[in-house]
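[INFO] parsing input record for Phosphate ABC transporter substrate-binding protein
[DEBUG] input buffer:
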Amino acid sequence: MPRFMPLTCLATAAVLMISTPVRADIAIVINEASPVHQISHGEAVNIFMGRYRRLPDNSVALPIDQGPLKARFYKALVKKDMAEINSYWARLVFSGRASPPQQTDTLKDLVDIVTHNNNALGYVDVAEMPSNMRVLLTISESP
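[DEBUG] output buffer:
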């Protein structure tokens, strides 16, 4: 076996690791004082897509979109891009059937709303998970 073979394998592995985008999972979170401890993927879809605005304990759900993470979240949750999501909400709002989730511009704003409201739920990158929130569901992004 040539001496440079292990070095070539190591270099190839390093290039593959650098060129592969790393995406963390997205956690749907709620105030740690909430009586709700988990939701299903279907419940998350229904709440964030305006089909049903109740948490599993039958309290009113207040979904919050986080602007910087919104496109990644909806792609992972319902496999739709922002043009499709915006079109979906335009139809629902125009018909008067539902209104989209409240939107925040920063993680800090999301944390502020969720920590002051037991029924508010939002989403965060797992790598930025605030300590004072409970994870209801973790969703993975498709490559």
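[INFO] Helices lie at 5-19, 41-48, 70-78, 82-95, 107-115.
[INFO] shutting down worker
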